[in-house]
Design a protein that fits this description.
about 400 residues, alpha+beta, Multidrug efflux transporter AcrB transmembrane fold, Alpha-Beta Plaits, 2 domains, 4-stranded antiparallel β-sheet, two-stranded parallel sheet, about 60% helix, elongated
């Protein structure tokens, strides 16, 4: 059974390769289908906006043990048989029942407090009543949308300047929109409540997604620059190699980020109940998974599609084809003479141990192994500074 670390080394050196870029049309179709379903969900179900956005009255019963049938008791006290009357009942922690209703006037709120106190056998002082107007939710929504627009503009500008290519910024922004639409669509289908904490979580997820995408793009730029220098790999192959080289890192980063969030999600769902902590953990859990998918399987393939007709990329592909044909011809000539030629170079960039010899040398006997870019690595080569003078034995020192 292959170890995960061995798989990471094989992906980095090019010994193994996952065809992310060659299969990009498949990932495009998957993403388009998911986005279409998410958009349809928004049109059919709409979002389950919390009380902060829709407005209404909220009652909290504290200071008593919450019975198992707390929801039915609360609805009976308010005369609401189902959700059609806009009543939401939930448990907060182990000793608080939260009841949310449509807007009630002072007299109606007083009656509800009395009914809830009698139902749960507490005093009226232990039943709090709060009114929340929809204007507060409108203000939060406007501020969140403004922050989203500013965030996208700044991200596009920074990426275009950093990578010196606006198409990289465009690919990253498309991946961000993909993450946002799918995450919101999941909320519409699942009927998870959207609170101000959820809005904060959406923005946090976008930041995580762009971070992961930038890491992959940085490796893409490194591989592509080397390909332009030696002409050994096409743009698509260099980009696919970058995705493979950062794949294990992306998986590890996602797993490390998900584990504490999942723990908070479980604790919140089982013990704390609905609230800011649970809302934030839920949107982060969904968004990080979607963002990891887009940074690996969507952003880099989009970049390849956007740049495939650029003049430098077209010229690089021609050079790589000529180089491949030349290597194949040399191998065909060398094979009958009994030369121990190895197979053509497979794509890679660096070696796992950092020991590299000059590219362009013949590709090796059983004492040498070649990386995907054509560089050779002797099996006894060591990483670190080379060409350092040997120190004389102690017996010869004076």
């Amino acid at each position: 059974m292959t170890k995960f670390s061995d798989l990471g080394n094989d992906l980095y050196t090019g010994k193994r390769s996952i065809p992310v870029v060659p299969k990009r049309r498949t990932f495009y179709i998957v993403s388009l289908v998911l986005m279409a379903i998410a958009t349809a969900g928004l049109g059919i179900n709409k979002l389950n906006l919390g009380l902060e956005f829709s407005g209404g009255s909220e009652f909290r019963v504290t200071g008593s043990s919450v019975p198992d049938d707390y929801e039915s008791r609360a609805r009976e006290a308010l005369g609401a048989a189902d959700d059609s009357q806009g009543v939401r009942v939930s448990k907060l922690g182990t000793g608080t029942v939260r009841v949310q209703t449509e807007r009630l006037d002072d007299a109606e709120s007083a009656d509800v407090r009395t009914e809830l106190a009698e139902t749960f056998s507490v005093s009226e002082e232990q039943v709090s009543a709060t009114f929340i107007g929809p204007s507060w939710g409108d203000s939060v929504t406007k501020q969140a949308l403004r922050a989203l627009v500013i965030f996208l503009v700044l991200v596009a500008a920074v990426l275009a300047i950093y990578f010196r290519n606006w198409k990289m910024a465009a690919a990253a922004l498309i991946a961000l929109v993909h993450d946002l639409v799918i995450t919101v669509g999941i909320y519409s289908f699942s009927k998870f409540e959207v609170s101000p904490a959820t809005m904060i979580g959406f923005l946090t997820v976008l930041g995580y997604s762009i971070y992961d995408t930038v890491v992959v793009f940085d490796k893409v730029r490194e591989n592509v620059n080397e390909s332009f220098a030696n002409g050994r790999m096409t743009f698509a192959k260099a980009a696919n190699l970058a995705v493979n080289q950062t794949l294990v890192r992306s998986i590890n980063t996602t797993a490390i980020g998900i584990l504490p969030i999942f723990s908070v999600l479980v604790v919140g769902a089982l013990f704390l109940g609905p609230g800011t902590l649970l809302d934030l953990a839920l949107v982060l859990f969904i968004g990080i998974l979607v963002g990891a998918y887009s940074s690996i399987f969507l952003a880099t393939p989009l970049l390849v599609s956007l740049r495939k007709k650029d003049a430098p990329v077209v010229e690089l592909d021609k050079r790589a084809a000529r180089s491949e044909a030349k290597r194949a011809k040399e191998l065909a000539v060398a094979a009958p003479s009994g030369a121990s030629a190895s197979r053509p170079a497979v794509e890679s960039h660096d070696t796992p141990d950092g020991a590299v010899v000059e590219s362009g040398a013949p590709m090796a006997s059983d004492e040498e192994s070649a990386t995907i870019t054509g560089r050779q690595v002797h099996k006894y080569a060591q990483a670190g500074p080379r060409n350092q003078p040997r120190r004389a034995p102690k017996s010869r020192r004076k």
